Amino acid sequence: MTVVALKQRYAGHAKRAALVAAAHSYMGRLVVVVDEDVDVFSSDEVEWAMATRFHPEHDLVVAH
């Protein structure tokens, strides 16, 4: 899993960052983009952010 933290500056910024990370990560099958306040090195913080901030109906992007 690749985790990227960023300060979203425009609509679609997180999606673009996720696609770039997926293209440049070795064997990266899952990319998670979180807000800048989440510590990407703490799996607990990343999982908490996913559990409390993620809305699948508009936050999930499947690229194949």
Which structural category do the helix and sheet elements fall into? alpha+beta
What is the helix fraction of residues, given as a range? 40-55%
Give, in spatial order, the strands making up the sheet with the most strands. Answer: 1-2
Kindly report how far apart the N and C termini lie: 16 Å
Count, helices:
3
* Proportion of strand residues: 15-25%
Radius of gyration: 11 Å
Would you tell me the overall average pLDDT?
Answer: 93
Largest sheet: 2 strands, parallel
Strands, count: 2
Order of secondary-structure elements: EHEHH
The low-confidence runs, each spanning 5 or more residues with pLDDT under 50, are none
Give the overall form.
Answer: globular
Structure overview:
The radius of gyration is 11 Å and the shape is globular. It contains three helices and two strands; from the N terminus they run βαβαα. The two termini are 16 Å apart. A two-stranded parallel ribbon has the order 1-2. The protein is 42% helix and 16% strand. It is α+β, with helices and mostly antiparallel strands and 64 residues long. The model has no long low-confidence stretch (mean pLDDT 93).
Give the topology, please.
Blueprint (H helix, E strand, L loop, with lengths): L1 E5 L6 H12 L6 E5 L7 H11 L2 H4 L5
In a few lines, what is going on in this structure?
It contains three helices and two strands. By secondary structure, the chain is α+β, with helices and mostly antiparallel strands.
Task: Using brief descriptors, characterize the structure shown.
alpha+beta, 64 residues, 3 helices, 42% helix
